[in-house]
Structure to design on (447 residues):
């Protein structure tokens, strides 16, 4: 396979790096095909960059991975550390997945790494996530940094990131039902896949887990002599008097309440703090304090600022955005919105678009009795999205008044006819792909 130039001619309005993406997407008929064989082959041809990485903190789980990584990054950077970060999926631009020593990768650097991986692959079958992960590892190996925060893409055992032999610590955020086509139909099976990132003798920190998930993780940890630190057992994280308290054998930290909104972020922040402590990184208390205030993670209960999209809503309407899409995510979001309702009461309107692989009923159930109404919309550019009518029907089964609209913009326009009373609080949710489209349309680009 000939490798085209990363900076060659491109279609008008199209970034040159997107031409490389198009070629890489054609290398495998499936977007997801969990295996490490292709990854090992390519890494060998690239000179094993996975063996030349900065110290790694490896993060798996179903919900809260991105927020936990965001907290760790904020604390480390507050301590003056240079931090690489790998997360997925991106919201608006692919570059969001790769942060090199504090900055999102630029197109030129990204194109060069992708071209090297493409050349080394020699046209052999490999998934898009695998070859882009290999490209990221190449950059992480070559750009100096103090720590690499490496987030699993899907599962753990066969994920393309699971090529690191000795991380500082492994982190598993709460496990719940999601991606059943690839990881299993029960929380036990899914937890077993997530636990595949555990390494012999390497400590692991676990977020709060369902009993079945915890047992599955503990079984693998026992086989590998992995010391476990479990939230709710070996360490605690809770809110007290508007502060975050994290307590473990090393002592108690009294920190500012996390900047990220929602009760679930107390757990995520506590997990991040404990992971850094177990990793043996000696950080000043001031770094943890600054990190809690500075942490930012787009589309996680993000209050949208002024932009072309939010200006479609009537004056006074609060517009929030979250990429939640599974049952546990729905529970966390509903709890967060109930907390907001307790502080300032407003009618809650959900604008929801979901993929066909997600259980819309399970996601929406926690909003019964909380949401005044739901407006179902398509997910732009996703042919596998659920029809809005199906999402609306799922909402109606839970007693939520539901309708459809052709777009988020149209749904916001329709609020101009809302009954007299306090302006509603709007939550746009159901899919990270929908969240990315909303951020792009509103000009709220992650940086």
């Amino acid at each position: 396979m000939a490798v085209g130039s990363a900076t060659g001619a491109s279609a008008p309005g199209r970034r040159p790096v997107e031409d490389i993406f198009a070629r890489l997407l054609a290398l495998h008929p499936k977007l997801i095909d969990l295996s490490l064989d292709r990854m090992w082959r390519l890494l060998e041809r690239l000179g094993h960059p996975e063996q030349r990485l900065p110290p790694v903190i490896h993060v798996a789980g179903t919900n809260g991975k991105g927020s936990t990584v965001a907290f760790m990054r904020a604390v480390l950077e507050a301590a003056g550390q240079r931090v690489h970060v790998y997360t997925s999926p991106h919201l608006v631009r692919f570059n969001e997945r790769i942060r090199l020593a504090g900055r999102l990768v630029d197109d030129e650097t990204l194109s060069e790494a992708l071209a090297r991986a493409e050349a080394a692959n020699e046209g052999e079958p490999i998934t898009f996530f695998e070859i882009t992960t290999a490209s990221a590892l190449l950059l992480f190996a070559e750009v100096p940094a103090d720590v690499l925060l490496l987030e699993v893409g899907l599962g753990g055992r066969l994920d393309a990131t699971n090529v690191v032999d000795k991380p500082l610590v492994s982190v598993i955020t709460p496990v719940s039902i999601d991606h059943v086509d690839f990881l299993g139909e029960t929380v036990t099976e899914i937890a077993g896949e997530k636990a595949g990132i555990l390494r012999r003798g390497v400590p692991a920190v676990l977020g709060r887990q369902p009993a079945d998930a915890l047992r599955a993780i503990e079984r693998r940890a026992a086989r590998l002599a992995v010391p476990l630190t479990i939230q709710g057992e070996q360490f605690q994280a809770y809110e007290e008097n508007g502060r975050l308290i994290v307590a473990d054998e090393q002592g108690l930290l009294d920190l500012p309440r996390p900047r990220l909104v929602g009760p679930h972020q107390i757990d995520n922040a506590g997990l991040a703090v404990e992971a850094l402590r177990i990793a043996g990184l000696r950080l000043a208390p001031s770094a943890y304090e600054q990190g809690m205030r500075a942490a930012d993670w787009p589309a996680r209960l993000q209050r949208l600022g002024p932009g072309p999209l939010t200006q479609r809503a009537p004056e006074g309407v609060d517009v929030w955005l979250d990429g939640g899409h599974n049952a546990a995510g729905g529970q966390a979001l509903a709890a967060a919105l109930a907390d907001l309702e307790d502080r300032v009461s407003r009618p809650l309107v959900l604008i929801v678009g979901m993929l066909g692989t997600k259980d819309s009923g399970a996601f929406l159930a926690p909003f019964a009795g909380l949401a005044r109404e739901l407006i179902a919309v398509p997910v732009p550019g996703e042919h596998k999205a659920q029809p809005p009518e199906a999402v609306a029907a799922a909402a109606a089964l839970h007693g939520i008044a539901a309708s459809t609209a052709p777009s988020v913009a149209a749904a916001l326009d329709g609020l101009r006819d809302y009954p007299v009373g306090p302006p509603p609080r709007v939550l746009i949710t159901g899919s990270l792909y929908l969240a990315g489209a909303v951020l792009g349309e509103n000009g709220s680009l992650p940086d």
About this structure: Residues 1-12 have pLDDT under 50 and may be disordered. The domain at 302-442 is CATH 3.90.190.20 (Protein-Tyrosine Phosphatase; Chain A).
